[in-house]
Amino acid sequence: MKKIDLYIIRKFLGTFFLSIALIISIVIVFDISEKLEDFISKEAPIKAIVFDYYLNFIPYFVNLFAPLFTFISVIFFTSKMASNTEIVAILGSGVSFKRLLFPYMIAASVIASLSLYLNFYVIPKANARRLKFEEDYIRVKMQFTRQNAHIQDSPNTYLYFESYNTFDNIGYKFTLEKFENKKMIYKMGSDFIRWDSTHKRWSLENYWLRSFNGLNETLKTGAKLDTLFNVKPKEFSKRTTDVKAYDIDELNEYIKEETLKGSDIVPFYLVEKYQRSSMPFATFILTLIGVAISSRKVRGGIGMHIGFGLAVSFSYLMFLQIFTTFAYYAGFPPFAAVWIPNAMYLIISLILLRMAPK
């Protein structure tokens, strides 16, 4: 580690944290002005606003845009070094361009490691408090009807609701099917199924039961039947954003449970899981692109580099959004959707590095 390495690392990290601090200050001001009416109308306590919301909002926002601000930081201070002929002096002293990348990768490793740890363990806990505050004081309480819900209650048991109302906790046109050796042995249905919050169980109204034993079939009907399932009402009222409150271990366990139940929103959870590692990795790719773009001294100076850099970074975010949308709604593999943009821009970074001044 030489003095020039420490100089670049200090410039890199200093610019990164300064730019993050400035943008967070601006965002908080705009966010307060936007949500002030909600805070007042719902009488949110000042202590809750500061410690439950904004104190947990800051790490979430920092980590969300860490790759972007890494890129902007690299573009800004490297362009300034290039305009001051520092890059030319470094390369002219016998330092290879690959060696010049060393301190950049060290600084990027610090940011990526911090981002990875925050993603896996710290930010989920902060998100849990932030999302609870939003649910209490900002968002409209969730009251909606879920249509055509197919749920796997256990390895051989499947539930179906034609619709489920989260306000009354009532399901309509309910059916349960149980299989053994790929043959149906039991089927149950009812016009209504209601959650009994007092006894913590389900109550079926106007039900019927059909049992199969070879060619023999037994039918039973009744007005009311109380029973238990693994599925609870909270399963119908979860927002897809609630997954952001799970640390990596909780997220993996939740994905297993939802996959077993045949949930149709598993792709949302898988994208969240893979993004927690892909976004920190993008820090390295965007750092390489930033160095390759801004190390050349051009007539437009820093403004030209920042303009081109912003175009590249926003195109990266656009491709990431496109591919994740395919994963959500078109059956595209979530792992591929998250990592393809990284692979594309890694190739772009290698091409740009070959074109960079040596």
The helix/strand order is: HHHHHEEEEEEHHHH
Q: Note the beta-strand portion.
A: 15-25%
Give the end-to-end Cα distance, rounded to a whole number of Å: 21 Å
Quaternary state of the chains: single chain
Q: What's the helix and strand layout?
A:
Elements: H1 3-41, H2 46-64, H3 66-83, H4 86-92, H5 97-137, E1 145-154, E2 157-165, E3 170-180, E4 183-196, E5 201-213, E6 216-227, H6 248-260, H7 266-294, H8 301-329, H9 334-355
Antiparallel strand pairs: 1-2, 2-3, 3-4, 4-5, 5-6
Summarize the structure.
The chain has 9 helices and 6 strands; from the N terminus they run αααααββββββαααα. By secondary structure, the protein is an alpha+beta fold.
Written overview of the protein:
There is one protein chain. This protein has about 350 residues and is α+β, with helices and mostly antiparallel strands. It has two domains: about 230 residues, no CATH class; about 90 residues, no CATH class. It is built from nine helices and six strands. The protein has a six-stranded antiparallel sheet. It is elongated and about 90 Å long. The mean pLDDT is about 85.
Key traits:
6 strands, 358 residues, alpha+beta
